Amino acid sequence: MAKYYDVHPENPQQRTISNVADMIRSGALIAYPTDSCFALGCRLGNRDGIGRIRSIRNLDERHHFTLVCQNFAQLGQFVHVDKDVFRVIKAATPGSYTFILPATKEVPRQLLHPKKKTVGVRIPDHATTQALLADLGEPLLSSTLLLPDEDEPMTQGWEIKERLDHVVDAVVDSGDCGTEPTTVIDLSGGEPEIVRRGAGDTARFE
User: Fold this and answer.
1) CA dist., res. 149 & res. 141, Å (int)
2) Which pLDDT score is estimated for 176?
3) SS3 99
4) E-strand spans in 160-201?
5) Following CA atoms 60, 58, 56, 109 in sequence, which dihedral angle do they give, to the nearest 10 degrees?
6) Which residues, in sequence order, are bridge partners of residue 144?
7) Which segment of 55-59, 107-111, 145-149 scores lowest on mean pLDDT?
8) CA 122 centroid distance within chain
9) Phi-psi bin for 118: left (phi > 0), alpha (psi -120 to 50), beta?
10) CB distance 170 to 52 below 8 Å
11) Long-range contacts for 108-116 (Cβ within 8 Å, ≥24 apart)?
12) Which GO terms label this protein's molecular function in UniProt (predicted)?
């Protein structure tokens, strides 16, 4: 059964956050809130966790996983960012955007797009997520919690606990978050390409 953590949305309890971070370090797969919607997350090198995310969401090898980062300094360790791209991302973060960029060697091969060798990265604007990333000290490997054959992600922590009780290890709940996934922008080819329109405003990329 998954552990259930009720976290204050503005002032996350540090003891609870540390408990969740310890679980992630030990190989746990969690469901957690972000500034767009709930996501599934595990440690970067957690092969079992990656497999479980693929299984829960029924994903193929072409799926872009996302590295959810605390800040720009952390993001820069995992993707190649030139000056123009830096300015674009800096202006849009933290926020509800995922950027697809060429990955560095720090990113495990199984997370990369098989042909493009790219990975998604984002910096969320959410107190609970930021507190968790600060304690963890590394990105969370993540994917939107959108189940197969469903049009919208689940928004209630209790519902996620009920439905995914035996396939995730913990559910972190800090109240409702949105039903709209991040806006996805591909910056790997130089010019911004809008891959998915979501919670983030696309006007600056058009």
Assistant:
1) 23
2) 80
3) strand
4) 170-173, 183-186, 193-196
5) 0
6) 39
7) 107-111
8) 7
9) beta
10) no
11) 108/44, 108/45, 110/47, 110/50, 111/44, 111/50, 111/65, 111/67, 111/141, 113/62, 113/64, 114/61, 114/62, 116/188
12) L-threonylcarbamoyladenylate synthase
pTM of the entire predicted model: 0.95
* C-alpha angle 198-166-113 in degrees, rounded to nearest 5: 40
**In the predicted structure, residue 119 carries a pLDDT above the cut 90:** yes
The pair of structure tokens assigned to 172 is 């972190």
Pick from 35, 38, 36, 100: which is nearest to 66 by CA? Answer: 100
Q: Is it true that the peptide bond before 12 is cis, omega within 30 degrees of 0?
A: no
Q: Residue 35 pLDDT more than 90?
A: yes
Q: 126 CB contacts (<8 Å, ≥6 apart)?
A: 33, 34, 35, 177
Structure tokens at 198: 């979501």
pLDDT of 62 strictly over 80: no
Distance between CA atoms of residues 83 and 112, nearest Å: 23
Q: What is the pLDDT of residues 64-116, one digit of tens each?
A: 889 999 999 999 999 999 998 999 999 999 999 999 999 999 998 888 877 88
Q: Report pLDDT for 194.
A: 96
Which residues fall within 8 angstroms of residue 133, CB to CB, at 6 or more apart? 68, 69, 70, 74, 139, 140
Residue 72 burial class via C-beta count within 10 angstroms: exposed 0-12, middle 13-18, buried 19 and up: middle
Please give the distance of CA 192 from its chain centroid, rounded to a whole number.
20
Pick the closest to residue 134 from 5, 6, 24 (CA basis): 24
